[in-house]
Records
---
Amino acid sequence: MSSKVLVLNGPNLGRLDIRDSKLYGSLDFNQLTTFITDAATALNLDADVRQSDSESQIIAWLHEAADAKIPVIINPAAFTHYSYAIRDAAELLKSPLIEVHLSNPLAREEFRHTSVISGIADGTIAGFGPHSYTLALQALRQILDK
Ligand code: DQA
């Protein structure tokens, strides 16, 4: 049986169709979702990909994952840089947590250099476009197989 993973995406990632493709790649969010679920299936993982612009919705999904002990891959988008509420919710997880970014925030504006999530994640993968998610799924597969 494949293991479930929640793949959570924060604000504005639902509008990849109109965001800068030089930073975020050329897939729209629906295409990214298919890309992630296909990559997960190949690793015997069952990815439930979700996106919200709302901090409270992302917190509710993290609570759901904490209660059900489901691993999480999260791209918190701009919340990465300042949401202590998402960090506190993510800290409740009893399962692996991997932070991903399409772009490399460290190569961008100063305000993107801080992640309040990284310190509680098992690891962070950034800068590889949609493949950041593939690499995160591979890392999760390894953690689960250990
Ligand atoms: C992002 C990077 C963040 O700085 C930005 O606010 C995003 C997307 C990324 O995937 O590269 O919305 O998380």
---
Amino acid sequence: MMMQIPGVLTPDETAAIRDAMLAADWVDGNVTSGRQSALAKRNRQLPEDSAVVRDMGGHILDALGRTPLFVAAALPVKVFPPLFNRYGVGEGFGDHIDNAIRFRAGSDFRLRSDLSATLFLNDPDDYDGGELVAEGMPPVKLPAGHLVLYPATTVHRVTPVTRGERIASFFWIQSMVRDGAARALLLDLDRSIQDLGARTGQDDPAIVRLTGVYHNLLRRWAEL
Ligand code: NI
């Protein structure tokens, strides 16, 4: 399931991150690629260990923590510190699947990538092409500050940019609930409880029991 999460960053936050990024030193995007994806990838990235990446990434992690839809949909146990890329004219990323296990150089941080995320940092009007196309899902290209989440198990690509430049942050999430179908059921149940609770009040006995069912399912399925 692909999910769009609007307004993760405000326009001011997005502009501040974009300005800091554009002033930094960029390297070839293949620094984070596996062997197959290196053949398909043409873009630039900020070095993973740079101060600007740590600082901007920290702001994004804070913003994710304040976004209830992200937390409910991803049920994150770990989020890879966000990385940043840009695609200019003629650059793109052909079909690939993201690595299953991501390590962070120079640390013992590692994560199983259950979900992949792209946070768009400039507006669709700024460039042509640069769409994220994941197998079996419609192409996406979102306004600045909006996030797309999709299963890391899917073949996907970024179509070549033909005008302007596409600027984004990307990262991976290890979910407490590894199975995407189980995660989708929990999200559906969570949203239904919120909707019903808004109509009947959270102290309605049926809402209390349904909330218990949500937590008891999460208790069965969660791995921390
Ligand atoms: Ni990818």
